[in-house]
Design a protein that fits this description.
Length: 141
């Protein structure tokens, strides 16, 4: 049980890094230093919240929040929708493995939502939004 939060974080960051690599967009983990980019994703995780619902039976809840940020571009004004679509598609059930790379459990997607913030400052061409995924694991000890 002590390793579950780490295994979950590793599974999520690997999953979303693969998605970002495939799209060729920078992905940063919240609270890490990163270079200034005009187009990037930032990964945030809330949790996991681990709750023992009966003896050695647990419910684990995790919220994933992906901030996307791009510069407005009159030549390619569809890029925002492509990025949102790519991240929404990646918000799906995610397998979690232990330290020996053996399957442990699956983060089951309960729901996802898209929040567009639009242009964040009047004097800036940056538009942003978030895509949130809410996941659950049910497991025995």
């Amino acid at each position: 049980m002590n390793n579950w939060p780490r295994w979950i974080l590793i599974a999520l960051t690997k999953h979303f890094q693969t998605m970002a690599d495939d799209y060729e967009i920078a992905l940063f983990i919240e609270e890490t230093n990163y270079e200034k980019h005009t187009k990037y994703l930032e990964f945030r995780m809330l949790g996991p919240q681990i709750r023992e619902v009966s003896h050695n039976y647990y419910h684990i809840n995790v919220e994933v929040n992906i901030l996307w940020s791009i510069n407005m571009n009159d030549d390619d004004f569809h890029e925002q929708r492509r990025i949102v679509g790519t991240v929404l598609k990646a918000m799906d059930d995610i397998c979690v493995y232990d330290d020996e790379d053996v399957y442990w459990n699956t983060l089951t997607l309960l729901r996802k939502q898209n929040n567009d913030f639009g242009q964040i400052e009047a004097d800036s061409q940056i538009i942003q939004g978030t895509i949130e995924g809410f996941f659950e694991i049910k497991t025995g000890g």
